[in-house]
Amino acid sequence: METEEGVRLRKPAPIKTKRAKEEEEGRRDGGEAGVDIRNCNKEMMNVEEEPLSPAARLFHEPNFNLHIVAIMGCNTRIYPEVVKANLPHTLLRHPRFSSLLVVDEKNGGKMKWVRTEVDLDKHIIIPDLDPNMESPDQFVEDYIYNLSKTTIDKSKPLWDLHLLNLKTSEAEGTGIFRVHHSLGDGTSLMSLLLACTRQISNPEALPTIPVKKKKDDDKKVFNRGFWWCLFGVWWVLKLFWNTFVDVFMFMLTALCLEDTKTPLKGPPGSEFNPRRFVYQTLSLDDMKLIKNAMNLTINDVALGVTQAGLSRYLNRRYGDDENKDSGEKKNNLPEKIRLRSTLLINIRPAAGIQALADMMEKNTEAKWGNWIGYVLLPFTIALRDDPLDYIREAKTTIDRKKHSLEAIYTFSIAELVLKLFGIKRASALSHRVISHTTMCFSNLVGPLEEIGFYGHPMAFLAPSSYGQPHALMINFQSYINKMTIVLSVDEETIPDPHLLCDDIVQSLNLVKEAVVARGPVK
């Protein structure tokens, strides 16, 4: 097992922000080397206070008290002192992670961020564990479950990091990074977390995140004169129609349109229940095999196998409830099930994960915070003879959603309601839309190479959240050649989350087998 000294040697270099450059120039002029956390905190406290953004205020409403959880499995024991020594170079440089949430009673109860001195001992939690316990995997799962029963103390910045040095089936040590959702959306917080890591092969380099390549097909069409005009008119009309229908369905959902009450749909008040986090790590190569064979994206494959897994699970649950044959070939599903996912879409103009070094500086163009729009994505729940049909249906649905401005308009509608009617009405609108759907889904792209969290090589990364009105949340997270499926469930609604996760995994295997059976993949 690697020693603490070995991990220290691989600690990441400080982020090269403007502030870091000034510090480096000061050292060249005879100043002290290194970063003094006390001076760093004093500098931060001199910065002006910042009001909360409208979306950040929304996440402090009682029915929207969301927390993001990132489970990090490491291939070595996690050394707390190494983590504490490196945090000032990254996390503490970001304003949100060194600020208190303060309610200004003299100014109508408005909320604002106020810089404070960070006591890392209050943020780094290291429980005393028995390394020889019988079921370490179950202990970690129960630990996170119990963590979801609590909220972060508002007397300190709204984040904490739990370090569990316990060997499990997938890791030698586990870190649980918990952040209040008001600090940022999933993409922003993933950017921050990845900025705390470095490539194992190159300790000075930040992780590499794949960026989607733009196709040249549209350019060829636009260079054909008459066909350019015809295609352009059709493209605009289709975009307008899709957006109109999607926004209309969004408003109808806010008013009265609700999903079918299935065994996956949580009852009112589900957001206050603790969550069970279940995850499995699969081969990303299997998903790429399907992607290449059917000319898809990884997101298409993820949605398709999720749709197949949910169909398998619901078919068994309906069979069990009615004492019918719950076998895979027996169709126990009711007809015309309406089951939709709330898909969170990043509406930033810049694609991919943004560097923390850019987001830390106020004068950059990068947007930090909750800049997300909602897309209501319908799932077809049915039993198919051909497993590939699930993938084809998912692709058709997501392709149509891509040719729509639904995410931008839903973000704008929520912001407009907040400005016109206040935070209470905006919270009620968002809560009503989300609670009228069944689940939440996300797919995040991770690093292409092995990375280390402050020198600790990472085995997997499993992000999720709790506090949402849904009883089910499904996240896909890629990392090197792996894909981790993460489920956050309310056990009062879904008592067998491991079985649901197995159904999604089995669905991926069935789709892969069907692709291989078709013949050689190009």
From TrEMBL:
InterPro entries: O-acyltransferase_WSD1-like, O-acyltransferase_WSD1_C, O-acyltransferase_WSD1_N
Membrane topology label: Single-pass membrane protein
Amino acid composition bias (Basic and acidic residues), ranges on this chain: 20-31
One Pfam family hit: WS_DGAT_C
Main location group: membrane
Pathway per the UniProt entry: Lipid metabolism; Glycerolipid metabolism; triacylglycerol biosynthesis
GO cellular component: endoplasmic reticulum membrane; plasma membrane
UniProt KW keywords: Acyltransferase, Cell membrane, Endoplasmic reticulum, Membrane, Transferase, Transmembrane, Transmembrane helix
Top-level division of the source organism's lineage: Eukaryota
GO biological process, one term: triglyceride biosynthetic process
GO molecular function annotation: diacylglycerol O-acyltransferase activity; long-chain-alcohol O-fatty-acyltransferase activity
Family matches, as SUPFAM superfamilies: CoA-dependent acyltransferases
O-acyltransferase WSD1-like N-terminal domain ranges (all copies): 87-302
Biased composition (Basic residues): 9-19
Name listed for the protein in its UniProt record: Uncharacterized protein
Organism, scientific name: Prunus armeniaca
Origin organism lineage: Eukaryota, Viridiplantae, Streptophyta, Embryophyta, Tracheophyta
